[in-house]
Design brief:
The protein is mainly α and 47 residues long. 87% of the residues lie in helices and 0% in strands. It has one domain. Helix 1 crosses helix 3 and helix 2 packs across helix 3.
């Protein structure tokens, strides 16, 4: 189950990841941390 605050936090992180993702997945990993990138990839997969 998604929690509203968690969704908002992830959406904010995803915006940052989207910017970093354009520069390469490795940079996104370094900038935002592996947990956020993994969350992003899981969310992307589920969508």
């Amino acid at each position: 189950m998604w929690i509203a605050q968690e969704v908002e936090r992830k959406e904010s992180c995803m915006k940052e990841v989207d910017l970093a993702h354009q520069e390469g997945r490795e940079e996104a990993h370094q900038i935002l941390g592996s947990g956020v990138v993994i969350d992003y990839l899981v969310v992307e997969f589920l969508l």
